[in-house]
Each structure stands twice: as C-alpha cells, then as structure tokens.
Amino acid sequence: MQKKLQSLFVKVGLSFLFISSEIHASPPQINVTAPVQQKRIVTVFGNQLVLKINNDATSTINANAITVTQKTYCPNLEVNDSDCSNVAPGDSCILQLSSNTPYAPCLITIEGSNTANSLEILIAFSHLGGLVFQENGGRGKVVANVTQQFKSSWTHSNFDIAGTGYEDGVINTGLITMNPACIGEPSYCAALSCRKIGDEWYLPARNELTTIHSSLCSNAKIPCNFGDFLSAFYWSSSQYDEYYAWFIDFPSGINFQSNKLFGQLVRCVRVFNP
User: What's the pTM?
Assistant: First the structure.
C-alpha cells in the first residue's frame, strides 16, 4: 500500500496550526481487455500476441512495471513490456508476446510491481498451419486450423481394418488409406482427405483427439478456449469394429462410436520436430 501526504492549515484564534497526515492509497487493480480468450495465440516465427492491459479506473495511483512474471511452461516466450512501465488509472498499455519455440497451451502470470492482483492468462501457439496441442523437448503435434475443417464419412463401406489402435494416428491413417473401403470411394474417406492436405497430415487416433480436447477445449464449452471447434462430433482414426469407429464429442470430450458411413467433422493432425 502506497502513502500520500496531505497537509492543511487550520486557524486557531489569531494563529494557524499546520496539520499533516498520511493517506494510504490502495494498490491498483489490472485486467486484460483484449483480445478475447480464443484469439490469445502466438504465431511461432510470426505474429506477436498483443495483450491490452488496463489499470482500472477506480485505482487511485499508477500501475508500475507491468510484465509477465511467470512463464514456466513456455520459457522461451519473449516479452516486450516497454509500454507498461507506468499506467495511469483508466489507461491501458500493451504487452507484446512472441516466440520462436512452439509450445502446448501455456499459463502465464502478469502483474505489476505495485498491483493488488496478478492475472493468469492461458495462451496458445500457432505453428505449421495449426495449433500446438502437445509438445515435449521441441517435438510435438498440431491440429489443423478451422479453415481446414471438413465433414466426411469414416469410409463409404464397412470393412474390418485391423490394427487401427487408440494411440497412433499415423499408423491408423496408413492402414485405412490402403484398405479397399477407402481406395474404392476416396471422396468418402476421412483419413485420405487428411493426406490430401499434405503427406504429413493424418486422421488423429482416439487418444490423440482426447489430448486435443483436453489441451484446446479444457473449458468444456463453446467457444472452446482455442481452435474454433463446433458443438459437434469429430472422427478419430480408431476403429471400434467392422461397422463402427470412435469419435469425440466437442465440447464435452466424451468418446462414442458411430457407424462409419455417417458424416462427422474432421480436424487433421501433423507432427513437428526440433
């Protein structure tokens, strides 16, 4: 709590009495006013995330030295806080965040040297045409941007495609695209449509899709924190049996099985390396 000195003269008879007192000023309150949660994205090797930080109009003193004070899970995040050294009540400043390193969504802390509160902000990272949902030691995975979202049946006919497990969508996609159910009707094959985006793209396995949900839609409601997912079913590349395959419901994250012939939404995935 900061102090202000207030002085006044009081007339007592023919004399003036000098009175001095201290007024305690409450620390300033800060908040983030822009952008909205879904747009708090850093583009790796690209566009900065610009956060607008406001010193509340009810504050009585300036907010000083506002910056990112904790970034444990995105240590190479770069912060330009030059605009936020001294912010008057009711005014705003901008923090510019950039990174040459991709990370899964990361919780950062923002505060000033004299602020009453700190802000915990969840940010995401865009890389190679998608949003990072998993990263470890510079290797990770991205899910395609919403502009690459499409609707498709799993396959257009029912075949038992053995080996399409819950963990590895790359293997699953290879098995599906080599199966007659996909080769015979390529326009109705979700896995093949992922490959058409690029050879490195694939239909995620069930557990990969679960990780996408927990990483980008942990709030379990629409709009998700990131990714512009719809309230809809999304195919995985994991087979349940000859007739059914697994999908995940957004935003709940619950796994279900659906007939392979039904059209569901698809978001493809790719791997990146250091």
Answer: 0.88
